[in-house]
Design brief:
The longest helix has 16 residues, at about 75-90. This protein has helices at about 60-65, 75-90, and strands at about 10-15, 25-35, 40-50, 55, 95-105, 105-115. Helices cover about 20% and strands about 40% of the residues. The protein has about 130 residues and is an alpha+beta fold. The protein contains 2 helices and 6 strands. The radius of gyration is 16 Å and the shape is globular.
Length: about 130
C-alpha cells in the first residue's frame, strides 16, 4: 500500500454481516484549502456507520483524507463528497459523517451528512436499569 495521498478507498469483508453494529471513526487531522482565500481549513471528521457487506480499511481512509490537503473546497461540498465516496466504496446500511471545522473569522462550521439504505431500519436502543 502507498504512503502517498490517494483517492482509492479499500475495503474488507464485514466479519459479522448478519448483525447490525456501529463503527465509529474519528479523524482529527483533516485539512483542505478555502476556495476563496487558499488558506488551510482544519476539521475533525467523525464517521459513524453500520456496515452491510464491506468495511472501510483504515490506512486507505487515512491516505484518502490526506488527499484533500491541497484541494480547495467549501465545507459543505467536501463533507458531502467524502460521504458519497465512502458510501460508494462500502455500500453501508447507514452512514453519518460529521465534519467539525475549526474556527475561521469567529465562525465554527459543523456539517452533518447522512446516507441510509432505503429499507434499513435502525434497531431500538436498549435502556438498561
Amino acid at each position: 500500500m502507498s504512503n502517498q495521498p490517494s483517492k482509492a478507498l479499500e475495503t474488507f469483508d464485514n466479519p459479522k454481516p448478519e448483525r447490525d453494529f456501529t463503527i465509529r471513526i474519528d479523524l482529527p487531522e483533516f485539512t483542505c484549502l478555502c476556495p476563496k482565500t487558499g488558506q488551510p481549513d482544519f476539521a475533525t471528521l467523525h464517521i459513524e456507520y453500520v456496515p452491510d457487506r464491506l468495511c472501510v480499511e483504515l490506512k486507505s481512509l487515512k491516505l484518502y483524507v490526506w488527499s484533500y490537503r491541497d484541494e480547495g473546497a467549501f465545507h459543505e461540498a467536501v463533507t458531502n463528497q467524502i460521504l458519497d465516496d465512502l458510501v460508494a466504496a462500502t455500500k453501508p446500511r447507514f452512514m453519518r459523517l460529521t465534519a467539525r471545522f475549526n474556527v475561521r473569522g469567529g465562525v465554527y462550521t459543523h456539517v452533518v451528512a447522512e446516507h441510509r439504505q432505503p429499507h434499513w431500519i435502525s434497531s431500538q436502543p436498549v435502556q438498561l436499569p
